[in-house]
Amino acid sequence: MRVFLSSFIVAALLFNSGCDSKPAGRTGDSKAAHDHSHDGHDHGHDHDHKETAASPADALKSTLEKAIAATQKIFDAGVGGKVEDAHDELHDIGHFLESLPELAKKAALDTSSQEVMNKAAKSLFEVMGKIDELLHDGKEVKFDEFKSDMDAGLSELKKIAKP
Fold first, then answer.
1. Do 75 and 153 form a contact (C-beta atoms < 8 A)?
2. Of 43, 99, 36, 41, which is closest to residue 67 (Cα–Cα)?
3. Is 110:120 a contact under the CB 8 Å cutoff?
4. Which of 44, 99, 115, 124 has the highest Cβ tally under 10 A?
C-alpha cells in the first residue's frame, strides 16, 4: 500500500507538471481553492492545505462526489468531442483522486471498497494524466481510446458513493 501511495504522489506531481497558468480550480474544494498560478508548476506547494472540520466519512463523501462530478464532466465533454472544454476539471480531478485513498482509510471504509476505490482512482488518474498531456502537447485527444477506462473507473466510484 505504501508503494501505491508513493507512486500515486509521484504521479500526481508529474500529472500536474507543465500546466500553463491555470487556476487550481473553481469547485469550492479547499485544496483547489487556494489562489496561485500554476506557472512553472513544481506543485511541491510550500504551504499546507487546511483540514476541514468535517468527519472523515463526510470528507470522503464530499471528495468522492467531487471526483465523480469532475470525471463525469470530462467524460461528457470527451464524448461530445470537446474534451478541452473540461480542462479545468482535468486539473481539479488530480487533487480529488489523490486524496481518496487516505480519506477512505480515515473514514474506515471496508477493505474491499477501499481496494476497489483505490484501483479505480489510480486508473482514472492515469487516464486523466494522458488526456491532459495530449492537450498540453497540442495533440488531438482521441477520446475513444480513453472512453472505456473512464467509464469503468467512473462506474466503480459511483458504486462506492451509493449509501
1. no
2. 99
3. no
4. 124
Q: What is the pTM of this model?
A: 0.67
Burial class (CB in 10 A: 0-12, 13-18, 19+), 5: middle
Residue where the block lists cell 476539471: 89
Q: What is the CA radius of gyration of the chain?
A: 15
DSSP symbol at 32: T
Query: Under a CB-based contact definition with an 8 Å cutoff, are residues 12 and 93 in contact?
Result: no
CB 149 within 8 A of CB 127: yes
Residues 6+ apart with CB under 8 A from 79: 143, 147
The letter for the amino acid at 57 is A
pLDDT in tens, 92-139: 999 999 999 999 999 999 999 999 999 999 999 999 999 999 988 999
